[in-house]
Design a protein that fits this description.
This is Chloride channel protein. It is a multi-pass membrane protein. Belongs to the chloride channel (TC 2.A.49) family. Pfam families: CBS (PF00571), Voltage_CLC (PF00654). The chain is built from 27 helices and eleven strands. With about 725 residues, the chain is mainly α. It folds into three domains: about 65-295, Orthogonal Bundle (Clc chloride channel); about 315-500, no CATH class; about 565-725, CBS-domain, CATH 3.10.580.20. Strands 3-5-6 form a three-stranded mixed β-sheet. A three-stranded mixed β-sheet has the order 4-7-8.
Amino acid sequence: MDLLDEPVPGVGTYEDFNTIDWVREKSKDRDRHREITSKSKESTWALVNSVCDAFSGWLLMLLIGLMSGALAGGIDISAHWMTDLKEGVCLNGFWFNHEHCCWTSNETTFQERDKCPQWKSWAELIIGTTEGPFAYIMNYLMYVCWALLFSFLAVTLVRAFAPYACGSGIPEIKTILSGFIIRGYLGKWTLVIKTITLVLAVSSGLSLGKEGPLVHVACCCGNILCHLFTKYRKNEAKRREVLSAAAAVGVSVAFGAPIGGVLFSLEEVSYYFPLKTLWRSFFAALVAAFTLRSINPFGNSRLVLFYVEFHTPWHLLELVPFILLGIFGGIWGTTWLGHYPVLEVLVVTAVTAVVAFPNSYTRTSTSELISELFNDCGLLDSSKLCNYDNANVTKSSNELPDRPAGNDVYTAMWQLSLALVFKMLITVVTFGMKVPSGLFIPSMAVGAIAGRLLGIGMEQLAYFHHDWAIFRGWCSPGADCITPGLYAMVGAAACLGGVTRMTVSLVVIMFELTGGLEYIVPLMAAAMTSKWVADAIGREGIYEAHIRLNGYPFLEAKEEFSHKTLAMDVMRPRRSDPPLSVLTQDGMTVEDVETMITDTTYSGFPVVVSHESQRLVGFVLRRDLTISIDNARQRQDGIVSTSRVFFTEYTPPQPPNSPPPLKLRGIMDLSPFTVTDHTAMDIVVDIFRKLGLRQCLITHNGRLLGIITKKDILKHVAQIANRDPDSILFN
């Protein structure tokens, strides 16, 4: 039996923590597609098979959208209920959250719309009263106990069943999409545990969001559903196209922003994003958003809790405070780069709960806080932030003029200032703990608080000093000039942009959230300013910093390689190293090959004509060699250690009584990428980035000199940037 005639199981697959060969995967898919197309002309069944193959991608997108939308709806509803459970319980049914519990009640008043007899606080249930210091202490204790219970369950489940479920998952997804393999990271257990512990972690009141982890959840759905279709199950490059679309789905259900999701995938996480993937991402994000809208998790027909609409136009002079918010966001974004190991989750939860409870703005969930900060105050709003002096307002007017702030507004500003300091400090500690934790919402909360404070300041300044030169002409008395909620929205965008370095996708997500196209310019100004400021202070966004700290082999496409080095300066072997390990096309036995595999740790070996000539024939991967030799020993008669190994097309006649030869030409890459030793390194780096290579062979006058792997390039880049080259841990 000839190994060329029958594919060997396992050949062409990859080991864990290795990089895929994009060129090989793409050519495999082209061959498969060519075969299906040629067969489709032969029979009706083959034609049906060809149509099914073409349609399978769209069907897969539909399934990912439906599954991700359903999971996101479940997470939203559960997190809302469990967050309210820390404060009390509904007597009509314990499964109702506070808002749903009081919906059907006829005894709610307008001022106290969240108080109804059906909803009991823990103090009321345990000691029978809602007033006085004992009731406050009882509610305080129950709040802390529930928070500790939720966070303990979250960290225990993650540690016991799915260690990969911690964090936001976006840095790892970026690395996986660049071609790296982390088995189990997008598996069934990770999906189940991440979904459950995400609800627990958000409900515990820790300063984290569910939006980042929803991208991980959607990618898990995509990876699991890929196994239903052979062309995605067997091809790592095709699977990464699906995962790019799944990342778009994750943002679509997190923010109710399908277009923003597609742009997020394109701008922030994807490595290879062909036009076909763009269309499919768009379709999948649409299906997911529709599914979430059908579930209606917040009961307001919106996809997110903090949807808001503004109606007042902004003035050109307001760009100055908007840019100031951008600068604040950029500076805040660079304070993130401390990465904390396994901190005691319970200690952080206890501190968070104890400090958060007395302040109503830190006690509520972060999404509800952002919703209140974005809110444009109307006459009927009962929020402290809307407690203005309405003496001069006519009830019939739709637009409310700028009004003097009441006492409650100043109280709220003090509480928000304390909340801002608390959120900035506690978020840095929380991110990096071993629970699912997203950065989007805490970053937006920090920016929204800063923006709302600045907005109220500007509003009061315009009211009391409307005769100043900067307000004259556009802010007359009795006009509605300043919208503090808009400042909160711009601040949220600035801080999120500073942390993640997103620009285009961020602006689109924010205007999909608010439905306000006319506010694109303020958002663009803040997003660009925050990116420029953050880049000036530190070049890396939070995801790039995480990738570097974990030692993943990720070649950043945004970084420019500007040093004048040549391929010969980076290639191995160096002058002091032993010669390059190579296989010859016809001069080795099975034992020689097995000895070379045992004695080295390389991922693959160049094949040459002979040791003397060093003329290159091809390249063969270590894993394929090992699998093929083991398979031949089991299934081919007479293959022993002394059998000759041939990588040639024709096997010469063997002497009588010699064992049968082993033909391995079928597993050899006959067109490995080669460059000459005088090729500039910036060109080599570009080739690696654009083609997704694992290795490139270096030749001189046609003779093999050495090899450059992706790891060599990453080490070289690290060395140039004065970082430790040994921090690159994987191949």
